[in-house]
Amino acid sequence: MSDKKSFSPSRRTFLTASAAAGGALASGQLVHAQAATPDPLITEAQPWRQYLGAGVDAAPYGMPSPYESEVVRRTVPWLTADLVSSINFTPLHELDGIITPNGICFERHHGGAAEIDPADHRLMINGLVDTPMVFTMEDIMRFPRENHVYFLECAANTGMEWAGAQLNGCQFTHGMIHNVEYTGVPLRLLLEEAGVQTNGRWLLAEGADAAGMTRSIPMEKALDDCLVAFKMNGEALRVEQGYPLRLVVPGWEGNMWIKWLRRLEVGDEPWHHREETSKYTDLLEDGDARRFTWVMDAKSVITNPSPQAPILHGPGPTVLTGIAWSGRGTIPRVDVTLDGGRNWHQARMSGPSLDKSMHRFYYEFDWDGSPLLLQSRAIDSTGYVQPTKEQLREFRGENSIYHNNGIQTWFVNENGEAENVEVG
Amino acid sequence: MLKTLTLGAALLAGTATIAVAQDSAASREGGFGLGRAALPEEVAAWDWDVRPDGTGLPVGEGDVWTGEELFVDYCSACHGDFGEAVGRWPVLAGGQGTLTHEDPTKTIGSYWPYLSTVVDYVYRAMPYGQAESLTPDETYAIVAYLLNLNNVVDDDFVLSNETFHDVEMPNAGGFFMDDRDETEVAAWTREPCMTDCTDGAVEITMRATVLDVTPDEEGDDTAAAEPVVEENPVETGPSPELIAAGAGIWRQCQACHEVGEGARNRVGPALNGIVGADAGAREGFRYSPAFREAAEDGLVWTEENLIAYLHDPRSFMPRSRMVFNGIEADEDIRAVLAYIMSETPQ
Questions:
Q1: Which residue ranges does the record annotate as region Disordered (chain B) (predicted)?
Q2: What per-residue confidence (pLDDT) applies to A28?
Q3: Which of A53, A229, B185, B257 could form a disulfide with A182 if both were Cys (CB 3.0 to 4.6 A apart)?
């Protein structure tokens, strides 16, 4: 069965309930909804209560309920020439907490997802080292490991929104992000095994895929907190996330997290390859471009309500929630506005608050059924306040493509339907 | 050494502090003795990245005219004969002076600061789906042609690992180091306003629905919700296992070829119904002279001929433009042919 998730029966109940609740709020007394007739889901025996369900091993690798079939990655076909060098988006509006399930972490490939037998995978370290080295996956699994939860955001996340509101749904505007617990070897330990020479100030990381993806990484970062990871959320990396081995570069743009990692070259200068000159550079209004814009600035988005997740229950108690993150640290505070930025309220943070990880916030309020202009504003542990899109444009114009961390606005109308808008 | 991280968020919410173990994996003096030394041949096989100063350039040379021929064969299906691009593939020529425009065109001529990046990228990743197939000479020729298309070098230019240093890229000075910390971060690190922060009510200035470019989710769902179940499938064709195996092998082909409903000619011709078809007969595809000759001689793509061709394309048809090393096992070739025929619209 793969029935489309249906809100209709519960929606009717909720509308009755909210009409009553609306009245109750006016009189200051709480009155619950009343049902006119008994609910057959309660009064009649249901098949799942009568007949046996599936046994163990019906699905040796378990899948979500068929009623969750809408919770999938989606692409925007007009963005790229084909699906091999393309991107899809995490369904943020369907998720809660901070961990992104492996199967719906967004994908970005430049030459398709390479399928590699771990027994055939090799990692080479060469360049300015005492001993150029080759490691098998077996070798790598014998080094000490660490576990860390980090967000990975593509530098182009929200890139379609520079010139104005364009895509209706936080999946499409903000879905080039996921947040995963990685298990891996500190990059430092592998570099120490090869012996980095004193003039080795840069690292070139290279993938084994058909794009031969390469990025230059300063040695200071490589030795600080980078990981060579083989597990995500406890299980092996997914093929589309770089199985069997990927680089983890905490807080920095996703393009640097080389997947299918096969080589690390130590050098004295950066390489200025395609992904750090032609792409992933930020063109400003005067025609000059910033390069090496590695750190992801503090950012947040309200995931519910949002265009793909309208308010279906009518006026009354409403849960507003969203996510926030910063490449510079943690997010101790998120503010939320219902009136387009005129008045702000501090949201409630819930769940682990980890360095360079996604954070979850909530703001519960009683919706009175009038239109809303929703925004969230992240403030990170360095005191950086997420800017408005106007503030961003003052510094960068509209041609930057990458690193758009401006405040997002959703307009919610009196029917609870939400739309991506800009305000002024 | 166990440090605990005090969580600001948890404190703000008045809940318990969560401790996160931050023990880092310790180094070992002299290393762990894991892995092995890389052999010089191994390093040489993988170490061919190029830097702006020319470090890492392969030895070779190529001229603009040779580059044009190669470009038309290997690159024009996506990038157009003159780098103008087909569909949404990257534009490779023009755009100088557009970086301050509303829609800048970023090409080698208008944007790329270093020639090394072009050589490195073409050699590393092109042609799309046939990486590592170009020789250094072919790479230099293609890059020379691209430079010529961008008016950076003349028609008679020969690019080599030596003349590389003579080329000046037009936008070499157009980049500067990330300065966000000094500019933006300083401007935005301040206590934010909480009440009456705007002059009066806020107005909507732009709506996404005006553009209507969001993919339609309903459309996606109808297909998924109603799987087509074939009743009593007739068991005459190749086995599903063979077709499935062929689908995996097809990945080697799909960078250049399409098959199925609406298949188009790309770098290579569309392959619908190829088994049993006349060679060189796909309408609208620009075949190589070798293919045109074979077609005139009446070559038919029987399974036997296809197996011989796909084993070793260059031996079967020496001047074919197909850049492909071949498939070793007969069974793999049969599988991919079964896949192609299963995808061919009836």
A1: 215-237
A2: 60
A3: A229
